[in-house]
Design a protein that fits this description.
alpha/beta; two-stranded antiparallel sheet; 12 helices; 46% helix
Length: 291
C-alpha cells in the first residue's frame, strides 16, 4: 500500500506558531522532488508539542497540498488508546489516507496490552493503520509474535520498524506475510532493510534530500543495487549528522541551508543544535553535493 521515500515532515514554526504557508510550500517541494508519501505529525514534526488544533491544521494542510498526488499518513500515536482513536478520527475527518500509530510510550504495556491497544484502535479507525515500533523512544517493544497477531486485522497494514534489528525484517515477513508493508524507520539501515524485504523508509533525511532519497528508494525497488549503494555512500554522513544532536534540531538547521530562510525555530524541550552538530551537518551537505 505504501512504498519508497516517505519523509517524516518537520513542522516549521515562526514566532511560536505553526508557519502554515511555509509548511505548504515545503509539502509541495517534497512532492515535486519525488517523495512517494508524506508523514505529518510524527516525532520529527515535534508532534508532542502540538495542540490538538495544530495537529489537525498540519495534517489538513498536508492533505490539501498533496491533493491526492501522494498518500498522507498522519501521525496519530498516544499512550492513551482513547486519545489515539480521537487523533485517528480527526485525521480521517480532514482527509488523511492512513494513520501512523506508535507503540504506547511511558506506561510500558504488556504484549497483551499492546495487542489490545492496536486492535481497539483499528476497530474504531476509518483509516488503514501502520504500527510504529521504536523501542529506543517508547521503552515498550511490540514483539514479532504480537505484531503478527495484530497484522491479522484488516485495517492494520504495515509497520514502521525503527528497532535497528535487520533480522526482524525477515522474521516479520515470514510471520506477518509478504503483503504486510514493512517500512524502515532508520535511514542508515534502509539499504539492508529493503534487501531483506522492506519496501521503503519513513525518513528524516528525506526532509533535506528528498530527490536523493527518492532516487535511492527507486534503485532498491528496481534492483539497481550498485546505484543504491552509491547513493547510500553519498547520503550516509547526512543520515548520521541529522542525529548528531536532538532531532529535529539538526534537520531544521540543514533545511535552512538547502532552503533559504526555512525557519529553524524549535519548541521546548527541543533546543538549537550544538556548534559541533552544525559542523557535522555542513560537512555532510557538502559530501552529498547539497550545499
Amino acid at each position: 500500500m505504501f512504498f519508497g521515500s516517505i519523509p517524516a515532515l518537520v513542522t516549521p514554526f515562526a514566532n511560536g506558531r505553526v508557519a502554515r504557508d511555509t509548511f505548504a510550500q515545503f509539502v509541495e517541494w517534497q512532492i515535486g522532488e519525488g517523495s512517494n508519501a508524506l508523514v505529518p505529525c510524527g516525532t520529527t514534526g515535534e508532534v508532542a508539542t502540538l495542540t490538538h488544533e495544530e495537529h489537525r491544521e498540519v495534517v489538513a494542510t498536508a492533505v490539501q497540498v498533496a491533493s491526492g498526488r501522494v498518500p498522507v499518513i498522519a501521525g496519530c500515536g498516544s499512550y492513551s488508546t482513547a486519545a489515539a482513536i480521537e487523533l485517528v478520527r480527526a485525521a480521517a475527518d480532514v482527509g488523511a489516507d492512513a494513520a501512523l500509530v506508535v507503540v504506547p510510550y511511558y506506561n510500558k504495556p504488556s504484549q497483551a496490552g499492546l495487542a489490545a491497544h492496536f486492535n481497539t484502535i483499528a476497530d474504531a479507525s476509518p483509516l488503514p493503520v501502520v504500527v510504529y515500533n521504536v523501542p529506543s523512544r517508547t521503552v515498550a517493544d511490540i514483539s514479532v509474535e504480537t505484531l503478527a497477531q495484530v497484522a491479522k486485522h484488516e485495517r492494520i497494514v504495515g509497520v514502521k520498524d525503527a528497532t535497528g534489528n535487520l533480522g526482524r525484517v525477515s522474521d516479520q515477513r515470514l510471520k506477518c506475510g509478504e503483503d504486510f508493508c514493512q517500512l524502515s524507520g532508520n535511514d542508515d539501515m534502509a539499504l539492508g532493510f529493503n534487501a531483506m524485504g522492506g519496501v521503503g523508509c519513513i525518513s528524516v533525511t528525506a526532509n533535506v534530500a528528498p530527490r536523493l532519497c527518492a532516487d535511492f528508494q527507486s534503485a532498491t525497488r528496481e534492483g539497481r543495487w550498485d546505484e543504491a549503494l552509491r547513493l547510500q555512500d553519498r547520503l550516509y554522513p547526512l543520515h548520521a549528522a541529522l542525529f548528531s544532536d536532538a532531532s529535529p534540531g539538526p534537520t531544521k538547521y540543514a533545511l535552512s541551508r538547502v532552503r533559504k530562510a526555512f525557519p529553524v525555530e524549535l519548541r521546548l524541550p527541543m533546543t538549537e543544535p550544538s556548534d559541533a552538530s552544525k559542523r557535522a551537518v555542513d560537512a555532510a551537505l557538502e559530501h552529498a553535493s547539497l550545499a
